[in-house]
Amino acid sequence: AQSVSQHNHHVILSEAASLELGCNYSYGGTVNLFWYVQYPGQHLQLLLKYFSGDPLVKGIKGFEAEFIKSKFSFNLRKPSVQWSDTAEYFCAVNAGYGGATNKLIFGTGTLLAVQP
Amino acid sequence: DSGVTQTPKHLITATGQRVTLRCSPRSGDLSVYWYQQSLDQGLQFLIQYYNGEERAKGNILERFSAQQFPDLHSELNLSSLELGDSALYFCASSLGGSGRAGNTGELFFGEGSRLTVL
A103–B56: do the CB atoms touch at under 8 Å? Predict the structure, then answer.
């Protein structure tokens, strides 16, 4: 069965600090990988996604993520965070091409608090 | 705005009661997914429907059921409610049902229905 691990449950940073959130998944086949963000009181929004090709993907609001197949990882990065990045971040995986369903399996989430 | 509409936004009810949550997917999307988000369990996949048929099942309790109607909207029925069912229930939609070519697999989420069981 697929699973997703997010190692950082709670991260506190000052504005302008760099961010890296870890995500590892377990699944032997082709996967699609996603990062979603949930701002306080809001629904989940897609930050970025990886399906194939360049393992370094760029998303909205200056976020990027790198897919390292050998490490089963898809870490999220941002060079300089802002107070408005305060939110919960979820890594997710689905089975990719040929999978029977598009259901996403989510990690437990990382709560990011950015201090002004 | 994701294009996915969920009602009601908030619901307060008592233990033992039954409630129905409703979801309208984005225009053109055939798949609907239900997720439960709670503090202790995180985001748990409950069930997926594709064009009216059940496609995948996750950690959905027997007290819970769902269906997707011909107009593609979906309802999640929660019965014999317990305190532990208090959570945020999200609906999401996507174009297709599986990871086939031409289907990006991205899910679009609604704003959720917050259920409080007293």
Answer: yes
Query: Which residue has 């377990």 as its token pair?
Result: A26
Quick check: B99 and A94 in contact, CB under 8 A? yes
The predicted-structure confidence for A63-112, as pLDDT tens digits, reads as follows: 999 999 999 999 999 999 999 999 999 999 986 555 567 789 999 999 99
For residue range A32-57, what is the model confidence (pLDDT) as tens digits?
899 999 998 888 999 999 988 899 99
Q: Show which of residues 85-104 on chain A sit within 8 Å of chain B, judged by CB atoms.
A: 90, 94-104
Task: Give the pair of three-digit tokens for residue A20.
Answer: 């890296």
Query: In this structure, which long-range contacts are made by residues B62-70, counting pairs with CB atoms below 8 Å and at least 24 apart in sequence?
Result: B66/B34, B68/B32
CA atoms within 13 A on the CB side of A15: 5
Mutate to test the interface with A, among B37, B41, B43 (most CBs of A within 10 A): B43
